[in-house]
Amino acid sequence: MTHLFDPITLRGVTLANRIGVSPMCMYCADGDGKPTDWHLAHLLQRAIGGAGLVMAEATAVTAEGRITPGDLGLWEDDQIPAHARLARAIAHVGAVPGIQIGHAGRKGSREAGWLDAPAEPSWQTRSASGLPQGHFVPPRAMREEEVAEIPSLFAAAARRAVEAGYRLIELHGAHGYLLHQFLSPVSNRRTDRWGGDFAGRTRLTLEVVKAVRAAVPQEMPLALRVSHTDWIEGGWSTEETVELARLVKALGMDLVDVSSGGIDPALQKIPVGPGYQVPGAAAVRQGAGIATAAVGLITEPEQAQAIVTEGKADMVLLARAVLRDPYWPARAAATLGRVEAVKAPPQYERGWSGIAKFGMRLETGKPMPGR
Ligand SMILES: Cc1cc2nc3c(=O)[nH]c(=O)nc-3n(C[C@H](O)[C@H](O)[C@H](O)COP(=O)(O)O)c2cc1C
């Protein structure tokens, strides 16, 4: 039976265990899309905590494709060295550095979430159709030739990600961002070849997958994050996701990261609860025969372990649980009887067994070993 702390190999890359740090926007790049000291501290800390994969946040493939001016970017070569610093640091402590690349489409031109304001200065966003969403500025529908340029932007960003040293690239096709805006009939009302039926709405995502696969080395694993359902009557559905997963598998996709929702918060009705997106991951895994990652309210070691051992997904991604506790993987290894699976960095070795066993010696007041 597969264990949460068994390694997993995706193409030419082996993760030490099946726990990944899910991409999380920090909205504090330097204004030119370059990572800062914050990103280094945030991601390195979580890599030390023992996750097999640590993914950098949604990183824009073009400046216009940012959610906020504080988003990370990989739209020009100048941005590579600062990303290389992150990838190097994550790899140095034994985790695989990954990155999510994406385009916000109509969900752009805002300030950071905690400011809740339009970007200053704002910019014209573009989407599948000219339909606005919530508080975002109304987009304009892309012309056909503008849509056709998007795959090459993803491919160029992926090439830069490889150069920076990331070893897994995830394409952001979820949460109501650009690729999802094309996939979903809620946001895509086009009548040209980029819209209409399933083939039209999935065309952009498939073209992006083809372009990225061709741009990166053979051994580089690719993941696609999808919203398996819009949770809206008549919206993008789990059945369509399974069909899309079959198609991307044939194009060389290695992992589908199964999330949900985000195309229209006003219309969606999400049955939020522990592991509420796991059935989507299981449906894709079973229906398309492709490896999946489950994500969303996975908070307990036994819960994560059950998802993997019961074959619902090949790995789990955690966001808020590892924000609360960067050492979640180390603690989970202890809880699940695999304490040796998460090695301490030598700098921490003396305190590590304490961390893993839920009571650092310093916390319990016991003397440090050797003192
Ligand atoms: C601070 C924060 C930032 C996030 N940014 C991203 C992002 O950049 N890309 C993405 O696909 N999801 C993003 N998400 C969603 C998470 O990756 C994850 O799918 C979601 O939080 C559910 O997992 P959880 O219940 O473990 O938090 C973000 C979540 C949080 C909490």
Key descriptive features of the protein:
globular, binds flavin mononucleotide, 12 helices, 15% strand, 35% helix, 13 strands, 371 residues, two-stranded antiparallel sheet, TIM Barrel
Short description:
The protein is α/β, with parallel strands linked by helices. It is built from 12 helices and 13 strands. Helix content is 35%, strand content 15%.
Largest sheet: 8 strands, parallel, barrel
N- to C-terminal distance: 42 Å
CATH superfamily: Aldolase class I
CATH class: Alpha Beta
Strand order of the largest sheet: 3-4-6-9-10-11-12-13
**What is the CATH architecture assignment?**
Alpha-Beta Barrel
Number of domains: 1
Cα gyration radius (Å)? 20 Å
> What proportion of the residues form beta strands (DSSP E)?
15-25%
Whole-number mean pLDDT: 94
CATH topology group: TIM Barrel
Q: What characteristic shape results from the CA principal axes?
A: globular
Taking pLDDT < 50 over at least 5 consecutive residues as the criterion, the unreliable ranges are 358-365
Describe the structure.
- The protein is an alpha/beta fold.
- The termini are far apart.
- It has one domain (8-337): Alpha-Beta Barrel (TIM Barrel).
- 35% of the residues lie in helices and 15% in strands.
- It contains twelve helices and 13 strands.
- The chain has an eight-stranded parallel β-barrel, surrounded by seven helices. A two-stranded antiparallel ribbon has the order 1-2.
- 52% of the residues are buried.
- The model is unreliable at 358-365 (pLDDT under 50).
- Strand 3, helix 1 and strand 4 (53-60) form a beta-alpha-beta unit.
- Helix 3 (144-164) packs parallel to helix 5.
- Flavin mononucleotide binds at residues 22-25, 57-58, 100, 172, 174-175, 225, 259, 295-298, 318-321.
